[in-house]
Amino acid sequence: MSLTDPAPEHRIADRVLSPGRTIARMVVHLFGVVSAIAATFGLAGPFATKAPAIVLSLIACVVWTAAAFYWPKLSDTAFFRAWALIFLLGAVAGGLGSGGASIIVPVAVFVLLGTPWITIQRTLWVGAGAVIGYLVSRLFAPTIEPNDLPLLISLVGVVGVSLMRRMASTEREADRELLVQRAETAALAERARLARDLHDVLAHSLGGLVMQLDAIDVIAEAQAADPGLRERIRGARTLAQEGLEDARRAVAALRESGSLEEALETLRRHADALGHAVSVDTEGDLDSVPAAVADALRAAVTEALTNARKHAPGAASAVRVEAQKQRASVRISTGAGIADAAGSAIPSGGHGLGGLRERFSALGGTISAGERNGEWVVSGEIEYH
């Protein structure tokens, strides 16, 4: 891995601290900078001899101060480069006899080794450069006797503490991932149970109702019943059949354990089987979307397509789902027809748009529906960390 390879930028959020911790961190860094400057100017010898060591140490302290002050705002690449530069400057200054190096170098090593997303390999490359810089600087200052013992002792201690800190952070991350996996497993088990209950109760009941209405329609036809009565029977049968299809889709959604992309393809195929032309367009890595967010996006697509078939039969729909950095969005547009039934296209009352709004809001997102350029558009967005 090269030294310029950036780590994932979403980890910038990991450096955002509470106000109290931010102040404490700044105090510690400023104390370190002041101590390094004091140790640097304590260098013995004529100014012409010690000037290079002082200049390099002061530059390292300036970069250190800037890196500490702008810590949460730096990109991961800038963060790594800043501390790599501090490490290199401190090492060269140490070779020239700077006492401040005994503070600058250990702090840089502590930050580089103790930051989980900076790989040890990258730190070792910087360390190799620092060693080379130190040895080369010794060639230009052979008469200066650097005080290597304090630097060596502090480096050994810092490396040990940094590695322990990294191991503890890795263990905490593993524990968090385990908790997430357990929660997802429990959620899948609960969804499977709900699917079984829904199938056993609702689907069977509606299936029986459809059969009963078919039988009544046959009897009414045999007895030459009033055409208006038969029309009502058939209307009731259609409603029961639609309810049965909705129940089956709900069961399929609850049992769905595949990816979001697979779920979208399943919805497209189902719509195609019902004569509803649906195009699906995706962008980004959908597999990186958290399960709860993916479920909300899937629910929005399901609800929008169901209402499109009810209120604009024959109109085509287009689905677009995007997964960007810490954000996922969905947009379902349906051609002319559904806008005429805008009041009921996505009913409220906690089942249609109202229910989706609650679901999106619980995840920190928003969803809306309305007519745009002659189309009925449902669009939602959720940000996550």
Protein described:
The chain has 385 residues and is of the alpha+beta class. Among the domains are: 9-146; 259-385, Heat Shock Protein 90. The protein contains eleven helices and five strands; from the N terminus they run H-H-H-H-H-H-H-H-E-H-E-E-H-H-E-E. It has helices at residues 19-41, 47-69, 76-95, 101-114, 120-140, 148-222, 227-255, 260-273, 291-311, 342-345, 353-362, and strands at 278-284, 317-324, 327-334, 366-372, 375-383. A five-stranded mixed beta sheet has the order 1-2-3-5-4. Helix 9 links the parallel strand 1 and strand 2 (317-324). Helix 8 (260-273) packs parallel to helix 9 (291-311). The longest helix is centred in the middle third of the chain and has 75 residues, at 148-222. The two termini are 26 Å apart. Mean pLDDT is 75; it is low at 1-15 and 338-351. Its EC number is 2.7.13.3.
Beta-strand percentage range: 5-15%
Helix content: 55-70%
Strand count, sense and barrel status of the largest sheet are: 5 strands, mixed
Order of helices and strands: HHHHHHHHEHEEHHEE
Low-confidence stretches: 1-15, 338-351
SSE-based structural type: alpha+beta
Strand order of the largest sheet: 1-2-3-5-4
Q: What is the approximate shape?
A: elongated
Overall average pLDDT: 75
Q: Please report the distance between the alpha carbons of the first and last residues.
A: 26 Å
Task: Count the E strands.
Answer: 5
Total DSSP helices: 11
- Rg measurement, Å: 33 Å
Transmembrane segments: 23-44, 51-71, 83-112, 124-143
Protein name: histidine kinase
GO molecular function, one term: ATP binding
Enzyme class: transferase
